[in-house]
Amino acid sequence: MAASPGPAGGAAAGAVHGSGPFGLAFDSGLEIKTRSVEQTLLPLVSQITTLINHKDNTKKSDKTLQAIQRVGQAVNLAVGRFVKVGEAIANENWDLKEEINIACIEAKQAGETIAALTDMSSLNRPESDGQITIFTDKTGVIKAARLLLSSVTKVLLLADRVVIKQIIRSRNKVLATMERLEKVNNFQEFVQIFSQFGNEMVEFAHLTGDRQNDLKDEKKKAKMAAARAVLEKCTMMLLTASKTCLRHPNCESAHKNKEGVFDRMKVALDKVIEIVTECKPNGETDISSISIFTGIKEFKMNIETLRENLYFQSKETLSAMLDALLERTEDFTDCAYTSHEHRERILELSAQARMELQQLISVWIEAQRKKTKSIDEELELAILKISHSLNELKKELHSTAVQLAADLVKYHADHVVLKALKLTGVEGNLEGLAEYACKLSEQKERLVEIISAAETLTLHPSSKIAKENLDVFCEAWESQISDMLTLLREINDVFEGRRGEKYGYLSLPKPMKNNANLKSLKPDKPDSEEQAKIAKLGLKLGLLTSDANCEIEKWEDQENEVVRYGRNMSSMAYSLYLFTRGEGPIKTSQDLIHQLEVFAEEGLKLASSVQAFSKQLKDDDKLLLLLEINKLVPLCHQLQAVTKTPLQNQVFLKVDKSITKTRCIMATLVQLLSLCYKLLKKIQMENNR
Q1: CA 363, CA 371: separation in Å to the nearest integer?
Q2: What is the number of other CB atoms lying within 10 angstroms of the CB of residue 461?
Q3: What does the pLDDT look like over 634-657, one tens digit per residue?
């Protein structure tokens, strides 16, 4: 049974103790450090760019010199942490060790060079006349920055190969255990093997989840999410299907039910590996990715080139392209569920497109023979006509697809067929089962698993495990219908130009409660001055996330509540920094508000944890810490107020205020993390005396 995109593995993924991305335990903190280093390096690249682009005649005030030195030191420290992670990867992967180590050495050299060229500590002293700095050797900074970028990229690419290998190894382990599960016929042995299988699936979900987040191609990301969701749902279905098979070993429908789940899981596992390795089995080409809409777009682009160059395309090529395109429309016209009106309209528009291409070719041939104004006008008219026909065809196909999907959803929305199927199963009604199984199969040929589960219950109406099994399959199908309806709405919105608003579904953040506030945040493109201001605020925020990560790195106990909340806040602040650059996971105004609300809530949780920690301190130290808490709490409440205040389409003002408040919170966070660490060390020293 198909499944929609969604998180695989759930909360359990965070608790697994298996082999992580670099061969260490997931809870070792190495994965966290890798992400932390990447988050640290990326904003600093922007800072380096700022250094390189600075004007030579800029007044070299003490503040400017301190800022330049701070950036240089931050780059060097971040590179140092990056190199440590790179070396850890190299030690776990001997086949790549030499390449990674060379790239790490280059990165370290580049970081040290940048730190040396931005060292302004002795610039104002008399003996510093011959000192080489960014002001005297800008070329040196550019070379070092390029070397840093090159070496970091090498390490990341090599680490990427390691992750791909680990995903493949994890998939192979899952397949091997699945093979054992298929053959098991003893319940006790099944429980032991399924427990191992569950752990391996959680590990696989963890690895593929990280990979999914790293994918840039939205189609690949959606395919990965769908495949992982299939595996997540099928894992539960496999449990009940296998138990039913063991309880009723001579029941053919029970075995058919279990085999269907195994087959679907194997297909999903292959799909994940196909996406990760970017190659299909047996060298096949992915025809499904070439949609009719893409075909129409490419065809129109080709005919429009005739305006500039009459010899760029051949007549045969254009005819073949249109034939291939119209052949794909047969999926609609041959479908038994396409209405007569839609079918006739699609055939009519297809014939019209063929006729207009022939007219275009005739004018095209004439235009190649002689160049006149009237011929040019005829050619332009022919191009516009066929483009219009294809646009109409595209609209008709969309309308047909939406209607078919809507009919399917409407048919199953109240789940009448599923309820009837369950009832016939409990009653042992074979005739009723056949009737409702036929109705389901008419709508979806791949519903064999639900039907076989119902058949098993019908043959064994008093079996509790058979009933539980059918319930699990029916719930999965109901979930599928719900997700399909949501996706249908979104697709229709995009097609009709209503972009930006997302429905709360699947793994996306849930919409916030104050919907009235969302309406005030309509798309509003800021001018260049506003963009520059937001970008400047973002850079400062990016640097503060780097400072926070540095403070977090000091803590030995990475699972300390203060550290966990601090890390979460730093990660969210980094996403906000990416938003100011037009990058990252925050795409819409709703996403932004949701992220800010969660950030403020996390800040208040941190304040509570720090307050609890303060009870261990002596009066003077406790007062010092409470003063910092008293700065954080009001800032978090102010940020919450900003997110809830409608500003009548003044999006820039809202973003400006939000980022400014976030920056103040992050500055306070850095101070709090530093102070808490010092006071914790002080307590530990006193306890050891």
Answers
A1: 11
A2: 14
A3: 889 888 888 877 655 566 677 888
Q: Look-up: residue for tokens 């064999």? A: 448
Please identify, in words, the CATH class of the domain defined by 35-120+135-162.
mainly alpha
pTM over 0.70: no
Express each pLDDT in 482-527 by its tens digit.
676 666 676 666 666 654 444 333 332 233 333 333 333 334 444 5
pLDDT of residue 177: 93
509 half-sphere exposure, CB direction, 13 A CA radius: 18
Question: Residue 365: what residue type?
Answer: I
What was the pLDDT predicted at 599? 92
Question: Are 609 and 524 a contacting pair, CB within 8 Å?
Answer: no
Which residue in 634, 639, 633 sits closest to 541, CA to CA? 639
The amino acid sitting at 624 is: L
Q: Average the pLDDT over 139-166 and give the result.
A: 83
| 184-279+413-494 CATH fold | Four Helix Bundle (Hemerythrin (Met), subunit A) (1.20.120)
HEC secondary structure over 615-670: CCCCHHHHHHHHHHHHHHHHHHHHHHHHHHCCCCCCHHHHHHHHHHHHHHHHHHHH
Residue ranges per domain, the chain? 35-120+135-162, 184-279+413-494, 292-411, 528-688
CATH topology of domain 528-688: Four Helix Bundle (Hemerythrin (Met), subunit A) (1.20.120)
- Tell me the two tokens of residue 1: 């049974």
Report the CATH number of the 292-411 domain: 1.20.120.330
Kindly report, residue by residue over 264-306, the tens digit of the pLDDT: 999 999 999 999 887 665 545 444 445 788 888 888 888 888 8
Token output for 510: 């849930």
Q: For the CA atoms of 292, 296, 298, 303, what is the dihedral angle to 10 degrees? A: 160
Residue 56 phi, psi dihedral angles, 5° rounding: -65, -30
H/E stretch holding 489 reads helix 464-495
